[in-house]
Write a structure and sequence with these properties.
Length: 169
């Protein structure tokens, strides 16, 4: 059975707009066959919870809404995701189009950015862009995996033929 693509979505707990966007992305992603996670913040909005860590570890992609100043908990989640994900381009950051990128440091060059203008842009268009990007990346990965498996199969076949011809000599 094919494993569905898993996406962890985070947002600043003090931002109602980010929370609404995250929940919308979560709902639409789940309806479209993605396995979606949100952070566990029931016990604390300042300390990274073990359940949240597990959800990040189980995710193929990490989406962060960064429309304003990042909270301490979101900074911890980004660092945890950065240390966990091998392919850093699977960290998707959604910035406020008017304010620009509010994350800094070399590691942010590896992230995949999206700009969102809450006044002009449609939430559904943003959600569609993010999910389409993830689906396209997964399709590319599957193509690469198939090509590698084919190459490996050919190599093993040639090795088997070589071994067979050696044993007949």
């Amino acid at each position: 059975m094919k494993k569905s693509t898993t996406v962890f979505i985070t947002y600043n707990p003090d931002s109602e707009a980010e929370q609404r966007l995250a929940v919308r992305l979560h709902s639409i992603g789940a309806v479209n066959g993605f396995r979606m996670f949100l952070p566990e913040r029931y016990f604390s909005e300042t300390v990274l919870d073990n359940e949240t860590k597990r959800r990040i570890e189980d995710s193929d992609y990490y989406v962060v809404f960064s429309l304003g100043k990042l909270s301490q908990i979101v900074q911890q989640e980004i660092e945890y995701a950065f240390n966990h994900l091998r392919d850093k381009s699977r960290i998707i950051v959604i910035y406020d189009a008017k304010k620009g990128e509010n994350l800094s440091g070399q590691m942010t060059n590896l992230f995949h950015p999206f700009d969102f203008d809450p006044v002009k842009d449609s939430v559904d268009d943003l959600v569609a862009q993010v999910l389409t990007h993830i689906a396209q990346q997964q399709a590319k990965k599957q193509e690469t995996d198939k090509a590698f498996a084919t190459l490996l199969g050919i190599g093993l076949g040639l090795w088997a033929l070589s071994s067979l011809s050696e044993s007949r000599k």
